[in-house]
């Protein structure tokens, strides 16, 4: 068997990203919770395989399937722009187990103010880590900016949850069960833009089709952040809308009335089942490597691109996750 050829494009996902199905297959692999069980040695081994291949060095005996496996292991643990290893709970593979636990608890303990505040704080702390870990570009963000984003999002989520809780006090219990979702949606609209405010100030890298960097664009950053906010809210809908309806029905049955301790684990399980599908499918709503027409860019950057590359009509950027 000959050596693996060097013309396999591992800069791009294995499946066609111009189709929703191709993006879904990609994100089912990226968000696979089993990636969390990989050791540091396995991650470094995959990193070495990928970086060596990109440098034109093929690991002896490497097959194409092994190369793609290494690429997805690498992508699951390292930032695509900075190359830094992501903190464990900030990786996309942690989305399902972490959100399953946190969302399940938010939906279970929604009746008392202290538990509402506590679980909204836990959720926004987790979101802050995820949003920072999966930001677009390689621009640094200061501790002060991180702190402002974190405090603002947490305050917004708690205020929304408590405000809606008081408004729904005299409404049917089913309506009250949807308060956590409204709080999460509101917090996403605050947390993500604030956590990525550096991108809104200096822009994110935009490239040509070959990956050659052309400059930084705030317009592209705004479009990318908007797409991420939409994806995150859609991601929360099945997990925070379906279980409350099911639990509202089950809690009226004798089975759960006699076994109230089953409520929390059952809710967490239902949320987890929804998230296994919602997380990759909603990540796939927009291409990871999104595009924007040059005419929509800032005048200065547009002129710079036209001067250097007059034939370029579309540029590309990493929207983040």
From TrEMBL:
It is found in: Mitochondrion membrane. Its main location: mitochondrion. It catalyses: L-serine(in) = L-serine(out). One of its GO terms (molecular function) is L-serine transmembrane transporter activity. Keywords: Amino-acid transport, Membrane, Mitochondrion, One-carbon metabolism, Transmembrane, Transmembrane helix, Transport. One of its GO terms (cellular component) is mitochondrial inner membrane. It is a multi-pass membrane protein. GO terms for biological process: one-carbon metabolic process; serine import into mitochondrion. It comes from the Eukaryota. The chain crosses the membrane at residues 225-246, 266-286. Mitochondrial serine transporter that mediates transport of serine into mitochondria, an important step of the one-carbon metabolism pathway. Mitochondrial serine is converted to glycine and formate, which then exits to the cytosol where it is used to generate the charged folates that serve as one-carbon donors. NCBIfam families: mtc. Belongs to the sideroflexin family. PANTHER family: SIDEROFLEXIN, SIDEROFLEXIN-3. This is Sidoreflexin. It comes from Nannospalax galili.
């Amino acid at each position: 068997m000959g050596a693996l050829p060097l013309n396999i494009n591992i800069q791009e996902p294995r499946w066609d990203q111009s189709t929703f199905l191709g993006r879904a297959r990609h994100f089912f692999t990226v968000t696979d919770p089993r990636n969390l069980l990989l050791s540091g040695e396995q991650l470094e081994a995959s990193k070495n395989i990928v970086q060596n291949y990109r440098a034109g060095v093929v690991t002896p005996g490497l097959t194409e399937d092994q190369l793609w496996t290494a690429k997805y292991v690498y992508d699951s643990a390292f930032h695509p722009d900075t190359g830094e290893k992501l903190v464990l709970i900030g990786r996309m593979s942690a989305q399902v187990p972490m959100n399953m636990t946190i969302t399940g608890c938010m939906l279970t303990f929604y009746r008392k103010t202290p538990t509402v505040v506590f679980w909204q704080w836990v959720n926004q702390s987790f979101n802050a880590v995820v949003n920072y870990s999966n930001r677009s570009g390689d621009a640094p963000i200061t501790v002060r900016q991180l702190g402002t984003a974190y405090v603002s999002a947490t305050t917004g989520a708690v205020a929304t949850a408590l405000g809606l809780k008081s408004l729904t006090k005299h409404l049917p219990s089913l309506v009250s069960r949807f308060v956590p979702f409204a709080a999460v949606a509101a917090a996403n609209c605050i947390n993500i833009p604030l956590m990525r405010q550096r991108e809104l100030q200096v822009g994110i890298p935009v490239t040509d089709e070959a990956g050659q960097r052309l400059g930084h664009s705030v317009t592209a950053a705004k479009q990318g952040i908007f797409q991420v906010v939409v994806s995150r809210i859609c991601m929360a809908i099945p997990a925070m809308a379906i279980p409350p309806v099911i639990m509202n029905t089950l809690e009226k049955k004798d089975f759960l009335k006699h076994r109230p301790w089953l409520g929390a684990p059952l809710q967490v399980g239902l949320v987890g089942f929804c998230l296994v599908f919602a997380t990759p499918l909603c990540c796939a709503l927009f291409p990871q490597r999104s595009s924007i027409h040059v005419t929509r860019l800032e005048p200065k950057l547009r002129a710079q691109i036209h001067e250097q590359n007059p034939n370029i009509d579309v540029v590309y950027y990493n929207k983040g996750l």
